[in-house]
Amino acid sequence: MNKRTPILNPLTLPNGAVLKNRLLMAPMTTCTGFYDGTVTSELVDYYRSRAGSIGSVIVECCFIDPKGPAFPGAIAIDSDNKISGLAKIASAIKSQGSKAILQIYHGGRMVEPELIGGRTPVAPSAIAAPRVGATTPQALTAEEVDVMITKFGDAVNRAIKAGFDGVEIHGANTYLIQQFYSPNSNQRDDKWGGSRDNRARFPLAVLEITHKMARRFADPTFIIGYRFSPEELEVPGIRFDDTLYLLEKLAEQGLDYVHFSVGSLLRPSIVDTQDPTPLIEKYRAQCSPLLGKIPVIGVGGVVNKQDAELALEKGYDLVAVGKACIAYPNWADRIIHNEQLELYIDSTQREALHIPEPLWRFSLVDAMIRDVSTSGRKYKAGVYQEKVEAEALKLKINVTLDTDRITDIQMVPDDTLDVDFTTTFTSLRNRMLVANSPHVDAITGATTQSEALKKAVSRAMSTSNKAWVIDEGGNPLAPQQFDVVVIGSGGAGLAAAIEAHDRGAHVVVIEKMPTIGGNTIKASVGMNAAETRFQQIKGIVDSKELFYEETLRGGKNKNNPELLHQFVERAPAAIDWLANHDIVLEDITITGGMSIDRTHRPADRSAVGGFLISGLVKNINQRDIEVLLETAVEEILLENGAVSGVRVVDEYNDTRILNAKSVIVATGGFSANREMVVKYCPQLDGFVTTNHKGATGSGIKMLEKIGAGTVDMGEIQIHPTVEQTTSYLISEAIRGGGAILVSQAGQRFYNEMETRDKVSAEIIALPEKSAWIVFDEQVRKNNKAADEYIAKGFVLSAPTPGELAVKLNMNPLALEATLNRYNSFVAQQEDADFGRKTALRHPLNQGPFFAIRIAPGVHHTMGGVTINTDTAVLDEHQQVIPGAWAAGEVVGGIHGANRIGGNAVADIIIFGLLAGENAAARAKQHV
Question: N or C: which end of the chain has fewer CB within 10 A?
């Protein structure tokens, strides 16, 4: 190691603690905590792998109060039960030889209601943050301010118990502590507001209680740091002289370091834009001798050794490194040995770099990911202009393409565009450039606009590809050769395409809709499987035999036994396949008709569909599998009785033939085809459907044209809990989490955990033909989907059951009596009224209380084409149609007369993989 570089010099802090060098890992959001803020094993590995040669690791901000998380997946230090998980992080860092420092914070008015169960965030004053759509917070009372300070102290005590070497008080990034000091967000008229001295009381009080806890419970070398944002743009707002004033006050109480929060080491003022002087130079020139003795951490733009050395040269004592530590876990070793690094991440290296999946999908990392695979599709280099139209949005974009990739996407200047859309565009643009594909996750809260943008980029790429073909002397409408054609881009189709590709096949995916995801993207609850490694980790004893029996019973013994055996046997391997492809379903719940927790879902307990499609699409992009959107299959072609390809028509009404030895049909069911539903089940006329518009049964029809047989076409499932004004499915996980169903009379009327058909029938039998799903704060906290329903406006809530009943136009005494009786059943773990045996998790007794009005809707068509256990399509005489394969809801026979919740996702992955494997094998045999 080169000892002459100053970044390796040790530093003694004011309290006597010695840092072995001048390098720290900056605190960065990972979004990897569990739903309640507890620590995941992925997060422990993430920090362990980055500790060692670097002197100190500042662990991402921990919220100190349940109303404090400023982002999803934040980790918490709000209760003693968080200590053990945080201790694992501290131990992992220290075991590698680095100091472990924990950043603590409260988000204040920057907290979104969706992150705290729809509740109103708190702040110094009832003034919304200066951004579009910001919630007006509730002003803390004087008593609540005192309590908040105590909570900061409790957090410090927990950090000490967890074994951290110090804490960093987060007074930056417009969070609660900064909000108290800012004249923009703090307009109180008590001792906590008004003058600069009064506004400084809160950060000073937090520092004071931190010192008290350190003196009582820690050794003298316990480190106390303070992070600050030097300026605010708002008027009125914090200016640099205000910041120096506060830092001087804090220095008088004692600090071991201060930490600039800026995007660039040498950033000048954002207020006085005419002054190019870096703020660190102003700081050094204007600080007192007392403040000047306190080490200063610089951050922003440090990638290579010369960047860190420049920071020390310009006046910083320590250098915090952010994104470079994510991209290179051994960053310090690399730069010490004079490696020149480029800030990017190979899209195939997530696991090797110990980057947790949520962080991988977070914008901080997403922008660094680079697809290093070579593209199979070619383009004519140039700039292609396309229109983007979505609702009120109308604009044009210029897409710049090189021969093998997207090099730029720019909006044509338009003064009418608002700032929110510009932000959406920038984020989505970065995702598409990194993936070299329009098939990326939409921006949360701007799905329609995102899909329109993605489609415009897709059109530009298609136009460019056709131009390239013409320049090469070809005909863009000439037949193309593939090994495997997959029809449908839901979970079954994408899994099949990935598996076929990985087994050596040249694959194309055809999707008639303008977006990827099919009906899978609307799936909510999870994926059923028995005898999985995740069940074993949680101590859940299950068996494939029991899974088989319960699925058969749920299907009223109409399930095809051979297909059901294949389904049950292959389920654990399908869970592992997903995990091996960075789609980890490790949390487990239960659905109606099951007796054991076997429904696997994401760790944050969010809806499984979006999570699944996002992960599968990333795998599609990494393999450069071509996806043709807004392209319909007119017919499946046969030659000598075997499948030979498909004829397709695109959005421009151009027709062409795609030759292939195997065609996998994964087009879903027909719940959105009212004519077809009524044909097979007339009593369902007028019911809403939870399915997307593309679930029209087109795959069944095209397979019937080549002779495929069908089975169980009259078996159509209605889901009992559908919000009727939007046709939005209310996940079975809410009932699986402990919720109950009550009638308008305020009474339970059936076992909520029975199979969907039975529960639906009981709701329809009620006078109103609808019911209320009722749950409390405990259920909400354990089900991320509930916050989504709150955000969408489906949910009524109140502090007490009686107040909720009034909002529901229900007899308060009746609802209170129902909850009291149900809670007594929970205590006894025996439902004397309706025999509910599962999901009696806890009494519904913690406010606020919530309710959603629901009624049944058409949800799943159990009937479809006939297949064998290899997923080969069978004709009406049960003979194989060579080269035709099918998977997912397009297939009949697996679920019998009723599908169990969680079995559809299992179905699409299990049989999608099997179809991909066998389709690829056949294509190889018939080269």
Answer: C
Closest CA to 449 of 380, 391, 531: 391
**CA-closest candidate to residue 786, choices 739, 735, 737, 734:** 734
Q: What DSSP string runs through 827-883?
A: HHT--TTT---S---S-S-SSSEEEEEEEEEEEEE--EE-B-TT-EEEBTTS-EEEE
The residue ranges of DSSP E strands in 97-237, in sequence order, are 99-105, 122-123, 138-139, 166-171, 223-228
Catalytic-labelled residue, pool 756, 836, 853, 922: 756
Give the span between the Cα atoms of 20 and 760, in whole angstroms.
65
Answer whether 544's CB lies under 8 Å from 530's CB. yes
Nearest to 815 by CA among 841, 844, 790: 844
756 is catalytic: yes
Q: Please state, as a whole number, how many other Cβ atoms lie within 10 Å of the Cβ of residue 532.
A: 25
**pLDDT tens digits, 172-207:** 999 999 999 999 999 999 999 999 999 999 999 999
pLDDT band at 133 (very low <50, low <70, confident <90, very high): confident
Q: What is the pTM of this model?
A: 0.61
Helix (H) or strand (E) holding 817: helix 812-828
Decide if pLDDT at 375 tops 50: no
Position 106: which residue type? H
Terminal C-alpha separation, the chain:
57
Are 656 and 486 a contacting pair, CB within 8 Å? no
pLDDT tens per residue across span 521-542: 989 889 999 999 999 999 999 9
Between CA 506 and CA 711 the distance in angstroms is 32
C-alpha to C-alpha distance for 889 and 676, rounded to whole angstroms: 15
Per-residue pLDDT band at 606 (split at 50, 70, 90): confident
DSSP one-letter string for 648-663: EE-TT--EEEEE-SEE
Looking at residue 810, its amino acid is M
Distance of CA 227 to the CA centre of its chain: 28
pLDDT tens per residue across span 73-130:
999 999 999 999 999 999 999 999 999 999 999 999 999 998 898 899 999 999 999 8
Using alpha carbons only, what angle is made at residue 26 by residues 24 and 32, rounded to the nearest 5 degrees? 130
Residue pointed to by tokens 């660190």: 280
pLDDT > 70 fraction of the chain, expressed in percent and rounded: 97
Please confirm whether the linkage preceding 848 is cis (ω < 30° from 0): yes
Mark residue 533 as left, alpha or beta (left: phi above 0; alpha: psi -120 to 50; beta: remaining): alpha
Task: Name every residue whose Cβ is closer than 8 Å to that of residue 786 and which is 6 or more positions away in sequence.
Answer: 117, 734, 775, 779, 780, 795, 850
Q: Is 133 helix (H, G, I), strand (E, B) or coil?
A: coil
Measured distance CA(58)–CA(288) in Å, rounded: 27
